Amino acid sequence: MDKENKIEVRNLNLWYGDKQALKNNSIKIRKNHVTAIIGPSGCGKSTFIRCLNRMNDLVEGVKITGEVSINNKNIYDKDVDVVSLRRRVGMVFQKPNPFPMTIFDNVAYGPRIHGIKDKKKLQEIVEKSLKDTTLWNEVSDRLDKSALDLSGGQMQRLCIARTIAVKPDVLLFDEPCSALDPVATGKIEDLIQELKKEYTIVIVTHNMQQAARVSDYTGYFLLGELIEFGKTKQLFENPKEKSTEDYITGRFG
Amino acid sequence: MGKRLNLENTIRGILLLFSTAALVILAIIVVFLFKEGLMLFQHTSVTDFLFGHKWIPAENIYGAFPFIVSTILVTLGALLISVPLGISCAVFLVEISPRWARELVRPAIELLAGIPSIIYGVFALIIVVDVLRVPFNLATGETILAASIILAIMILPIIISISQDSIDSVPRIYREGSYAMGATDWQTISKVVVPSARRGIIAGVILGCGRAIGETMAVVLVIGNVEKLPLSLLDSGETLTSAILLEMGEAVIGSLHYNALFCLGIIPFLIVLVLSMLSSRLITKRVSRFE
Ligand SMILES: Nc1ncnc2c1ncn2[C@@H]1O[C@H](COP(=O)(O)OP(=O)(O)OP(=O)(O)O)[C@@H](O)[C@H]1O
Ligand SMILES: [Mg+2]
Q1: Residue B181's closest chain A neighbor by CA?
Q2: B187 interaction partners in chain A (CB closer than 8 Å)
Q3: Whose CB has fewer CB within 10 Å in chain B, the N or C terminal residue?
Q4: What is the ipTM of this complex?
């Protein structure tokens, strides 16, 4: 059983300065499944997901205790190379953030910084990544145009393409659809279903239907604490905790 | 109600008056400069003026080529020094240095920008010129290079502060996107942050360049002021603006010499005009519709 857990979080605490944002959370994330993180605004969803690739290291004054093991290796150990960790654990952000360069250069950015120089190899990677994110047909004739001229939904898929171009094995999504319309959102959701065959996925979302649609497991956070975690179907249909039920039925607050 | 409206109208009127005044003054300067300057061409051809190697007012020979070349060399030299220095300094201040260092350096840079140029000139005359003379084994240290160095110091604050602002305003999400793919600090800075800020950086360089072309007082003290074609950065020279400064006193108003000096003034005027148009276009052009 344990082999199927890609990520194991044990007693994770996080402080911004002296304000505690995560309180003693433990969670196991299954390999090749989609795990959704839900909860009201400010409950620590982003903070939690950013612990999984140590993005919080970039924030000044952060203190973290506890353990996050990926492939049975604690990523907060002293000997861990953050750069190669982030390469294995990719992240897509709430706001589409393509770099102000061409579509091709955006997708080739990761492979290039990791040392791939061969033009043909880069082209292959770019094409495959764009195909995997269903963007290829829409942009194949304008790879040398600025990525900033794409639509919001296309930008977000480009960001996913850019992330998978470095071949991570975990993908973290922090509210990837909150800036998108329903059609673009549908495309990203389909994509996530497709991607979970190859990747372990954690997605933060505000949208309960989305969590129910795309995820296999769901965790509910409240005020920095993981209140409930379980199979998505069970958590939505038969929550154990009263506060989970209040939240998912919209009776919260 | 009515009173406030009146006040607003009055203020609006005053502001309008002042801003039109600025335009009118600009127009007068342009007309005056061109009217006096272009008279030269009744006597000397444009080609002779731009490419003539000799400048002998006593014989009414007005070839501005040595001045033009000096100006270009001095400016290029100054840019060569100040651009890499200024950009690295800005990158360091925004991305690497601790906050206290930033807070120490910012007012220092502002102060540097406020020092009158004659002070820079005197400093250069006393120190830079001497420092150059010995290692390069020169008869005099008053050279194009000395002028370039002092100009570089003078335009550094412009380049640093504008580059710093534009690097600072690169959205955090670009940096995060880069780090999230396993980029190092250096890769993120050199491949994402600086390229994203390039418009602003280029605008800063252009502004600095304009300042360098127009600067007179500091240059005139250290460049040697010989009216001959400089062949290297270690030659003495004389820039367009220093020629005007040095000769305007002796030129008889309305004489050909007087016209020729105005004509010299037209050249940096046009260059600076083009440069500032370029830089304001760069600054206002949209970067992304998501910002
Ligand atoms: N850089 C920071 N410095 C200080 N406090 C922070 C920082 N980032 C987040 N916080 C605080 O930590 C708590 C959790 O924030 P977080 O962004 O993780 O919430 P969230 O669940 O993602 O909210 P949302 O759904 O609105 O995105 C909030 O109270 C927030 O104010
Ligand atoms: Mg969030």
Answers
A1: A87
A2: 113
A3: N
A4: 0.91
Mean pLDDT of chain A: 91
In this prediction, what percent of chain A has a pLDDT beyond 90? 77
Cβ-based interface (< 8 Å): residues of A facing B: 53, 55, 58, 83-88, 90-91, 93, 95-101, 109-110, 112-114, 148, 152, 155, 159, 162-163, 166
Q: Taking a C-beta distance cutoff of 8 angstroms, is the pair A177, A207 a contact?
A: yes
For residue A5, the model assigns a pLDDT of 87
Cα A55 from Cα A49, distance rounded (Å) = 9
List of chain A residues whose C-beta atoms are within 8 Å of the C-beta of residue B180: 53, 55, 86, 90-91, 93, 163
Identity of the residue in B180, B182, B288 whose CB atom sits nearest the CB atom of A100: B288
pLDDT digits (tens, 9 = 90+) for A61-114: 999 999 999 998 999 999 999 999 999 999 999 999 999 999 999 999 999 999
**Domain spans in chain A, listed from the N-terminal domain onward:** 5-248
pTM for this one? 0.82
End-to-end CA distance of chain B: 38
Query: Would the CB atoms of B182 and A83 count as touching at under 8 Å?
Result: yes
pLDDT tens-digit readout, A37-53: 999 999 999 999 999 99
Task: Look up residue B255 and give its two tokens.
Answer: 């004489």
Supply the residue whose CA is at minimum distance from atom 12 of ligand 1: A21
Of A91, A95, A148, which has the smallest distance from its Cβ to B180's Cβ? Answer: A91
Q: Pick the residue with more confidence: A181 or A220?
A: A220
Predicted pLDDT of residue B290: 41
Query: How are strands ordered across the β-sheet holding A89-92?
Result: A89-92, A170-174, A200-204, A34-38, A217-222, A225-231
Listed as ranges, residues in chain B with pLDDT below 50 are: 286-291
Could you tell me which of B80, B72, B24 has the C-alpha nearest to residue B271?
B72
The SS3 of residue B237 is strand
CATH of domain A5-248: 3.40.50.300
Secondary structure (DSSP) of chain A: -GGGEEEEEEEEEEEETTEEEEEEEEEEEETTSEEEEE-STTSSHHHHHHHTTTGGGGSTTEEEEEEEEETTEETTSTT--HHHHHHHEEEE-SS----SSBHHHHHHHHHHHTT---HHHHHHHHHHHHHHTT-HHHHGGGTTSBGGGS-HHHHHHHHHHHHHTT--SEEEEESTTTTS-HHHHHHHHHHHHHHTTTSEEEEE-S-HHHHHHH-SEEEEEETTEEEEEEEHHHHHHS-SSHHHHHHHTT---
Question: Strand pairing partners for A63?
Answer: A15
In A, minimum Cα distance to B288 occurs at: A148
Nearest atom in ligand 1 to the alpha carbon of residue A49 is 18
Residue A25, Cβ neighbours under 10 Å: how many? 22
